[in-house]
Amino acid sequence: MPSRLFNSHPDRGIRVPYRVMEDYVRALFQAVGMSEEHAQHMAITLTANDLRCVFSHGTRQVRDYISEMQNGHTNPRSHVTVVSEAEATAVIDGDGGLGYFPSYMGTEMAIEKALNVGVGAVTTRNHFHFGAAGNYSRMALAHDCIGMALSSHRYRPRRDATVLSASGGSPISIAVPSAVQPPIVMDMSAHFISYSEEAFANFPAAVFKGLGLAAVLQAMGGILPGIWREGYGFTGEGKGAAPHQGAFIAAFDVKRFADVEAFKQEMDRYIGEARATKPLPGHDRAELAGGMEWEWEKEHREIGIPMTDEHCDLLEQVGDSVDVPSPFGQFEDARFDNREE
Prior knowledge:
CATH superfamily of the largest domain: Malate/L-lactate/L-sulpholactate dehydrogenase, NADPH binding domain
Mean pLDDT: 92
Helix content: 25-40%
């Protein structure tokens, strides 16, 4: 069995069809004033992460997002606009809403530009959380492009702390296409290990590498998009805190660098050979980045999303707060328990 990480397959719970989850999440967002189009986008995106067992960036996020919209922190009806555009680049404004919408638009634009001129890069600004970076890098795969997405948020190094206060745990994802093997999708935070004096003494290289990556992500995913500029916020009636997140998204058209079919065949060879190696301790299979998520998504589209009771309770509480009935009770007969005896 895999290691007991937060983003791993639950041992027990119920299975919920992904279409049911999408319908429920869409209704939750619409209940707080989000447009049907944006609510559907959130439903599909967050449910897709649940399908991959990336629960940290799936429907568990709904509670916080809806709370932030209810208290005026986040614009529920943001109007995304293109601030500037050139042949290979663009800048997009998120209007004080969630970062999913400008980042999705930006990814579509980056891919289109890559297909036209070889590479495309977009920054997004004036928004809050954009979710999992892999939401966007994966979009490039269907177009035989390599996708990259990274982000950062406002934070300042503290003089009364170590230099590690300059590391904000920002996310980065790079997705590389293949033919029949699972594509490589690296989707990770800049933090490699939790810092402590003992961790630093035993693994100083991991701490320094995490700090280096975090600094670059702050520069490219935050400062370059403009998270520290003044004057951002809602263009409507919202009165929340200043939007604090930005993103840098890029796409690279493989055919501008190599024959696409030959490249994908070589990727298949490499990935296949890696999957034929010995698994790491605590795991029952060898996979590269994104391999388990690829397998889980295929499986769970067929048999349903595995949800713990705690996960169901969390979403039911959100539904109660906005008068949207939970659908989970009807799936008690789909309960599973894979705990080892």
